[in-house]
Specification:
The complex is a heterodimer. Chain A is an alpha+beta fold. Chain A is 33% helix and 17% strand. The chains are: A alpha+beta, B alpha+beta.
Chain lengths: 162, 293
Amino acid sequence: MSEKLYSVSVEVNGVRRTGQVTARTSLVDWLREDQRLTGTHIGCEHGICGACSVMLDGDPVRSCLMYAVQADGHKVTTVEGLANPDGSLSVLQDSFCEAHGLQCGYCTPGMLIAAQALLNQNRQPSEEQIRDAIGGNLCRCTGYQQIVDAVQLAAKRLAGAR
Amino acid sequence: MKSPPFEYVRARSVDEACELLSSHGEGAKLIAGGQSLVPMLAFRLLRPSWLIDVNEIAALKFVDPQPDTVRIGAGTRQCVLAKNDVIARRLPLMRQALAWVGHVQTRNRGTVGGSLVHADPSAELPLAALVLGARMKLRGKTSGQRMVAADQFFSGPMMTAIRPDECLDEIHWPVWQDARIGSAFLEVSRRHGDFAIVGAAAQVAVDESGRCTRVAFGIGGAGPAPLAFPKLAGRLVGTGLEADAVQSAVHDAAAELEPGTDTHATAAYRRHLARVLAARVLRSAYETARGRA
């Protein structure tokens, strides 16, 4: 017996993307498998690690904890949507390189989404606010300090650019 | 870690959600924020035949301050409540509880009603609801509308008084009118945002001389459901929450608990935490009420 398919239409990184999904297809599986946007990583698949974080209508959420069919009619931003229009790295992404905010890179897309969502709402976050914002994202390499440094560096650069 | 197959439908109103629950039978489940339900499906702890999505029901999302209560729509997201001025001013205990709920990403999806009906024994919002005496407005196609008080609502781990065909519509949170009130919420978990090993919540009102006129406190994570202690709290009315009185109350409270042992903590440690945290939240709430915190 084949599973029933549902139509979805989601604005992903400013582009309308449509498809047919089973109800149980998670948003992250749809993004990676059907839309080939493999920047978003799958870690634990049960809402613990934060690697699959994307923005839903501007707010960071775990894309393994919602079904693609639930995103129908909404806007999603993935890590691919953070870079500048010419493909060069955003200030935050470049700051992660500069401050060694990653080693293996597995958590990075989720960290970038969480940190960008913070910077979108708070231009000058304190260290505590940064740690709170990335508190739902696990990193097994950096010990988090360089990630905090990277977000602080990005905030400083963004403030200087204005 | 993939969910088992199910069919999906978006409900456009609470009536429609109730209708769908009724017509699809016991295999149907409502999905709100999904922050607990989706992992349960991923682990195959649940195999619903239908998921009825209530996320798009605008009528379930509101904060409506009344003279002595705040009505909150069950579908209101935790992140919205955490930033809401009415909640901060009139339900400080709820705001304090929300600071311990999950992480940014889960609060952006998780709803107040979802947390209450999920009824994890260590969850913060059920404990706050119990301590404040919140009342749940339930709706079902056959049972109609009924109100259930928090102390009748939570019956065990992930178990509530809600019937299979019912939907939690809104929650009425009592607001204390006393001039001087204070509240506090504390928990111990391995990392902030993890499930609490034990949590405690308290709210007190004091008169001009510093005597308690009302006291409420409760403990979560140390038994099959959160527990409040109205009789023990009543004993503290008229006191200035002196150390002896507090120690006696929290000792008796801990004796009523039925904590379990698991990989995170032993029953004895949970009981110990319950005593320590309950004493701390009572003290902290009192200091706030007296304007000294």
